[in-house]
Amino acid sequence: MYVTGRSTRETSTRSRSDWTVEAVAETIRSHGGTAIPVRCDHRHDDQVEQLFHRVADEQGRLDILVNNLVGWSDSLSGSITGEPGWADDSLGLPLWEQPLTWWDVNFRGGVRAHVANCRFGIPLMLDQPGGLILFTSEKPRPSPDRAFDTVLDLRAQVTARLVDLLARQLFDYEITCVLLYPGWTRTHDIVAAIEAGRYKLSKTLEDLNEQTVSPQFAGRATACLAADPIAIERSGQVLIAADLARKYGFTDIDGRQPNPL
After folding, report:
1. pTM here?
2. How far apart are CA 20 and CA 6, in angstroms?
3. Helical H segments across 124-240, by residue range
4. Helices (H) and strands (E) in the chain — how many of each?
5. Are 85 and 14 in contact (CB under 8 A)?
C-alpha cells in the first residue's frame, strides 16, 4: 500500500506530527499492514505521474486505487481549528458570498486531481481483472432543497457522474468503480477543533463520537468491497458505508454499526 499526501515530517507546518504520511503508514504497519509513505501533491500532474511510475517499477501492477482528495487545508483560512487553511468560513454560505477560490479548491483538489490519478493509475490495472477504483465524496443530494453547500453538492454530483462513466468504460476489463460516502467522519482536524473549543457542530468529543464514524470505518467498507467477488455488480453506484456495514457485517472500531449523516 502506498500512502500519499503533502505533509511529511520534514515539510509539515502543522503542530501535530501524526498528521503526516509517515504517521499514517506507521499506524497501518502497527495493525499488521504494509504501507509506503510517499509525498505527492495530487494537484500537480508531474508528481502524480512520478508516483504511478514508481508503483509500476516497484510492484508492476495496481489492484486498488482510492481517490480520497479534498485539498482544503492550505487554501483558505477559517475558524474551526484556528490554523490557517480550514474552510469553515465558506462552508454552507450562499454562492454569492463564497470566494471563487472555494470552487477552485474543491474542483482542482477534489475532482481534477482524481481525474489525474485515474489517467496515470488505470493503465496499471488493465491487465488483470478484479481491480477496484473507489472515490470518496459527499453524498449527492437528490433534491437541491437538501444541499448544504452549492459547491460541495456540485462536486459530489460531478464525481458521481465520473464514477458512472468510468464504470461503463472499465466493465469489459472487470474493474469495479464506485463512489463511497463514508458518513460524517471525525478527522484529525475535527478532533483538534473540538479540543480547542472551535468546532461549531459538536461541543464535546462524546457528542462527536455519537454523531460520527472513525476514518477506519470507510477503510473497512473498502476492504469488504475489494474482497467481494461480485463487487462489479455495484460498479457505477453511490454506496453508503453504513449500508455496507449491515450487508457485510463489519463494525466501526467501537463495535457499533452507526448511521451518520
Report:
1. 0.89
2. 8
3. 150-170, 188-196, 205-211, 215-227
4. 9, 6
5. no
